[in-house]
Structures are given as C-alpha cells and as structure tokens.
Amino acid sequence: MEDTRPGVAYIASLELLKVASRLPSNKNRSALVHTLARNLDLFAGDFSPARRIVLTPPQNATFKELNNYHTKEYLDFVLDPNNGDEKTKAELGLEDDCPTFEGMADYIRLVGGAALTAVSMLREAQCDLAVFWDGGRHHAQKEKAAGFCYVADCTLALMALRRITQPPPSTGPSIKMRTMYLDLDLHFSDGVSHAFHKTSTGSAQLLTFSIHHAAPGFFPVSPLAALPSPDSDPFTLSLPLRLGASNRTFKRAWKCVERVRTAFDPDFVVLQCGVDGLAGDPCAIFNWSLGPEEGSLGWCVSQVVNTWRGKKILLGGGGYNSPNAARAWAYLTSIALGHPLSLDTEIPDHAHFPLYAPSFTLDVPAGNMQDQNSDDYLDTVDSAFESISTILTERLAK
C-alpha cells in the first residue's frame, strides 16, 4: 500500500557526521545530534502518523556549485588539503575562530552539497520539508571564512531556490517563486543578509529576516543588524533584541514576523534554527526555552511548519552546549514530523547518555536571567515593523 503521508527529508550520512564532528567550534556535536535522534526513534518509519521521514544522504557539492557564490581564490585554497601558507590563511579568514582542520575540504563539499540536496528534495512532489541540522552556517562570506563558518550553505540554498520557477497557468512566462529566509540564531546573519542586500530591487523574489542580539562590539558588527527605518531595504530585515530575551519577548516579536510573512507571502521558507539563544548556552545572552509555551523556540518553529504555506528547509546554526543542541534539534525534528515529543521524554540509554546529566530529559528550560527587553523597547520594534511592512506591501504591489 502506497504511503501517502507528506515526506520530511532528513539530510544526514555517516560521512557527514564524521567530518562535521571535527568542526573546531562544535567538536562531536554532529554525532550527539544524529545519535540522539536515532535513539529517540525519530528515524522509524512509523514514528508519526502525520508525516514520514525520508533519510537522505547529501551529495558532495562540485567546485562549480560552490563557485556559484564563493570566489575561485577561496575555493582553490580551502579545497586543497596541502595548502598551508599562513599569509593566505589570514587573508581568507582561516585563523582565530576559523582555523583549518582535518577534513575541512570534505566538510565544505558535504555541507554545501547537503544544502543543495535539501533544495532538490523540495522539488520532489513527495517532500514538502527538509531538515539539515549540520547546516545554517550564516557567517561565511563570499571570499573568506568567518564566525565558525567555512561554507555559505544558507546562501547556496537560497540561490538555488531563487532559480526555481513555476509554470504559467496557461500561456506566458514562468512565474518566479518567492523565498523568505528567517534566522533565529543569537547572532546576526551577516553572511546571508549581506549576500542579498539590495538585490531585490528589480524583482522581489527573496527576503531575509534575522532576529538576534545586537550590542556595541557584539559579533558580528554590521549596520544591517539594526531595526529597519523608512529608508531601509524592506527585503533585508533585522529585529535586534536585548539581553535576557525570553519566551515573552519572542511572543511579542513574532507579531512582526507574521506581519512581514503575510505581506511577502513566500512560496519557500528557509528557517535557520540556531540554538545559542537557549538558556544554558555558554554565550549566556538570551533566556529562551525549548517549548512548548507561546514564544518558545519550539512554538516559533511550529508556527512556520504548521501554519505557513509553502515548502520549508530547517537548518541548524549556533549552539555551544552540544547536549542541549541535540535535545533542541531532536525536538524540532519531531515537530517537523508532525508528532512533537513530550519535553518530559527521558533520554534513552546510549553511548552519549552521561552528557545529558543532571536532568536526563529532553527539556531545555529557561533560567532566571532578567529580560531587558522592556515594553517600551518592544513598542518601538512594533512601530518599526508596522512601517516597514506597509512599505513592503506597497513595493510588492508595483
């Protein structure tokens, strides 16, 4: 009997797990993420009555595919494991937070290729959602590595989605699809936002929206990380939050997200689910919880997955408490599959079990950090997005 449940492509492989686990900023995180998902039975064919999981190995990206965004000079260096010139390393950002590492070339090809594999799966009629937790590397630049990110997988996926067209209803040219990129990471999505800033002036196909912390000196520093003004590019949006952002604050902020989404009405959504804003992360900036109450990370992702139209890609990102990242992405996978796990679920006994002490449950609860996002500040945010949404609607009507 044919399985008619919508498919969720889960992009992973043993090879990807091995090379992603060598990433200097997140050593062994990939192994924790996929091992926990497997031990929670998320890969079982009968896990959810609503959606079925399609385990999908990533393809290696070709040089040409990576070169669609990254420069030849950058790729020539990072894809050659014998390169070791220190001056060139510095010029290409391969120092400090982005040191070279064993398997880096394989990592770049696989992570870039996995993002393109996710796009390919959305072209298939049986898949309306793809999940790629080793992706979401939103700081990588065209010509250099930055912020723990060596390959611009988000940008490569968005470029591929922008090339997809819809056949006309009868006669005439093909219809171009709209794609919205929404970033929930603690840090501003500078690599993605800069890549597409002011590129929608001729045709409003792509909109980027980053919710993040911004403060003097906080990485990454960019003028695009500020609240939009009437003179801003309405297709490059940012919503900066102050210290201690909690479920309450994200619930308020989500009204702005919905206002923009309604105006833009995307056909595709790429959702970067960085988890470094969760309580317990070493960054210690936000006080966000995993779920399920309104405004939580799980609630926000559920809104996109279950109430927004169109096809979606869920990506990973930041998250430096690896057991909590594994917890979060397992929970979000269960949401994507239409069968959310209880946050009281006990962590199964497996190789990494001791790392989930002391609770040994799936939950990542909020702490007691004070939320410094006052009602006055959030009123300012609301006002800015009410104005920019009006501008966006007017631009789209032309």
Note down, in words, how this protein is organized.
The longest helix is centred in the last third of the chain and has 23 residues. The termini are far apart. The mean pLDDT is 95. It is built from 12 helices and 10 strands. Strands 2-1-3-10-9-6-7-8 form an 8-stranded parallel sheet, with helices on both faces. A two-stranded antiparallel ribbon has the order 4-5. 50% of the residues are buried. Helix 8 links the parallel strand 6 and strand 7. It is α/β, with parallel strands linked by helices. The protein has one domain: Arginase, Chain A, CATH 3.40.800.20.
SSE inventory with pairings:
Layout: E1 7-11, H1 14-20, H2 29-39, E2 52-56, H3 63-67, H4 72-78, H5 86-91, H6 104-123, E3 127-132, H7 153-162, E4 165-166, E5 175-176, E6 179-183, H8 190-196, E7 206-213, E8 236-241, H9 247-264, E9 268-272, H10 297-307, E10 311-315, H11 322-336, H12 375-397
Parallel strand pairs: 1-2, 1-3, 3-10, 6-7, 6-9, 7-8, 9-10
Antiparallel strand pairs: 4-5
Helix pairs in contact: 1-2, 2-11, 6-7, 9-12, 10-11
Protein name: Histone deacetylase 8
Family: Belongs to the histone deacetylase family. HD type 1 subfamily.
Domain Histone deacetylase: 25-334
Tally of helical runs: 12
Return residue spans where pLDDT drops below 50 for at least 5 consecutive residues: none
How is the CATH topology named? Arginase, Chain A
The radius of gyration over CA amounts to: 20 Å
Overall tally of domains: 1
CATH architecture: 3-Layer(aba) Sandwich
Characterize the main sheet: 8 strands, parallel
Order of strands, main sheet, comes to 2-1-3-10-9-6-7-8
Structural class assignment: alpha/beta
Domain Histone deacetylase: 25-334
Enzyme class: hydrolase
Cofactor: a divalent metal cation
Subcellular location: Chromosome; Cytoplasm; Nucleus
